[in-house]
Amino acid sequence: MTPSLSDTPALSRRGLLKFSLGATAFLATAGLGASLSGCSSSVPANGFVTLRSGDLLFLRALIPVMLEGAVTAERMPEAVGGTLKSLDYSLAHLSPEMLKLTQQLFDVLGMAVTRGPLTGIWGSWENASANDIRAFLDRWENSSLSLLRMGHSSLLQLVMMAWYGRKESWAHCGYPGPPTV
């Protein structure tokens, strides 16, 4: 017989704080390790100002899942490319500190040693199914760790702002566009 939730001991505040601090230290160490070891290239990918090749692998897998229902399947490659260009433009205009934090998030998601345990996606992003990515997003959105919930929120806001800032997205949401002056 499996114990019910009421039968299992609750995590104390102190235990939760210790776990959160440990998780924060782990993520910070992993991000710093990636930066120092050269795993995360700081060189932008060809045709981009800030997005790196590793970022593109992750984002090209993530964006189609996030845009499901807003873009038809035949227009998805064009939407992904446009969203990446808009995201790159937005990231290029962030403060240096905010860009650094965003790149650390992308580094953690790009490194195999952190990607598997944190996302549940143990292989490369290119091989992850849409269901795997949905499960990862759901896992982070509903995590007991505020750091993962903040990561989910950041990813969602970055991608959605990049997509809905594009003219081709406006018809789907009923926005006629800015008024003519």
Describe the structure.
The protein has a domain of 122 residues. It is globular and about 55 Å long. The mean pLDDT is 85. The protein starts with 12 loop residues before the first helix and ends in an 8-residue tail after the last helix. Helix 1 crosses helix 4. The chain has 181 residues and is mainly alpha-helical.
Average pLDDT: 85
Shape: globular
Q: Would you list the SSEs in sequence order as H and E? A: HHHHHHHH
Give the termini separation.
Answer: 69 Å
Low-confidence regions: none
Helices and strands: which structural class?
Answer: mainly alpha
Q: Rg, please?
A: 18 Å
> If helices are DSSP runs of H or I spanning 4 or more residues, what is the number of helices?
8
Largest sheet: none
| Binned strand content | under 5%
- Binned, the helix content reads 55-70%
Number of strands: 0
List keywords for this structure.
mainly alpha, single chain, 181 residues, 0% strand
Task: Please summarize what this structure is.
By secondary structure, the chain is mostly helical.
Topology:
Layout: H1 13-37, H2 53-66, H3 76-92, H4 96-110, H5 112-119, H6 130-141, H7 146-164, H8 170-173
